[in-house]
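Structure ticket #2291
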Amino acid sequence: MSEWTREGPVTEPAYDRADPQSGRTLVNFHLRELGLGESWLIRADADGQRFCRPVVPQDLGVCRAYVLTEAAWPEGAELCVTVTWTPDAALRRDDRTGRVPDGAEDHWRTRIAATAQALESLGYVVEPSRFKCSLRYHFTAELLVYRMPAGVPPRQLPAATAWAPSEPAPPHYRRNSWYPERSPQEVVRDALHEAGLGFFQQDRSPFGRAGIRDITQTVWPPEADRCAWLTW
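Resolution: structure written out below.
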């Protein structure tokens, strides 16, 4: 059987704004180069069967980038993704008991800040999520990571008091659904239904068809208590 070899680009991949996956690939590459991302080791046996083994950073948590619809990018950004940071297994909240291990809060605070600083050193702008930022509510933290064209300043965030609600919107550990309230998708769906607009699952509509999906709370406007992603 062959030796384990690293899977993935060894040189910086090209970014093409027309390909949403290329932004995710580029940021994941940078996360691996910073020692913060997930790597995969691959080897093949004599029959050509491949075996994979994930490798994550030790004592730092692990980061992964995800595609974000361009409709939710900050104005003027040329690249934008969300990045999740997952704490070390020993410092995660216990799902059965709700217990938070000793040192977990410091781990979250220091590692999220260090992750943001590392990405900023490569020219990215990093915004913390005002919702998904507490181990007492969520399994992971989330960051909005984007890049502005040369010479263009990033947007100004609201004051910290306006940016951090007292409690995150569901779903989260303490409240796994919107019930008995209506979810953002239900609110938008009802409004469109009243306007006579159809949906993708329907065959006909004189006004076109629309799809409604949830969208990460990280990109909700600060003043919003409901937000959904609508495609027409």
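Closing remark: The beta strands are 5-7, 39-44, 50-55, 62-67, 79-86, 125-128, 141-147, 198-199, 209-213, 229-231.
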